[in-house]
Amino acid sequence: MIKTKEKPCKSIGIAKGFDSCGVLTLVRKYGMCLSCYSKWLLTTKEGQNKLNKATIKAKQPRKELNEAKSHKREFERLGTLIKNVSIICHKYIRERDKYKPCISCGEPWNDKHQAGHFYKAELFSTLKFNEDNIHGQCQGCNLYKEGNESQYRVNLPKRIGIEKYNELNCLASLEKKTTFKWSRTELTRIRNYYKNKLKL
């Protein structure tokens, strides 16, 4: 094993010419002991450039990490907003359809009826909050019969009218051809729309 030899503190390379102490030392940076190296970093133009570059390099991963965290927080906030809009939208649907029978099987209304989507919310994002696409539905149809779609399809035109039913089908077919993402502005608008509807 080769042993490191002590050498006099003497500036070399980009630090050449700096007034170093000349003391024997094992650990050297640009030929200088750590004490002289620190002084060189703080008191010379070349040293400060070196220090600034090292600082920028050290901050870069932190900056990238902060940006990633910020993006994650933004995504989480958007997800939270979508959940909040869903809650108020479904609350309105249950209030609107109070005392109406289940859209699918016709079970008489009870306070356990839910807001059931005709076009599934997870598959048709643009129809997620469309009030023509959401109706009071019993738990049996909504949870255990996957929405009881066949009966939903029969009864929906009777509930909203054939014109709105055709428009809903048209919107669903258009979504298949596009990529859609909710914006904060649009979600806020929808949330306020349903809040106002609940006040009426």
Spell out the blueprint of helices and strands.
Blueprint: E1 7-8, E2 24-25, H1 34-43, H2 45-96, E3 114-117, E4 134-137, H3 139-144, H4 149-160, H5 162-175, H6 184-199
Antiparallel strand pairs: 1-2, 3-4
Helix pairs in contact: 1-2, 2-6, 4-5
Describe what you observe in this structure.
The structure is a single chain. Helices cover 55% and strands 6% of the residues. The protein has 200 residues and is mainly alpha-helical. The mean pLDDT is 88. It has 6 helices and 4 strands. Helix 1 (34-43) crosses helix 2, helix 2 (45-96) packs parallel to helix 6 and helix 4 (149-160) packs across helix 5 (162-175). It has a two-stranded antiparallel sheet. Strands 3-4 form a two-stranded antiparallel ribbon. It is rod-shaped, with a radius of gyration of 34 Å. The protein has 2 domains: 7-44, no CATH class; 75-199, no CATH class.
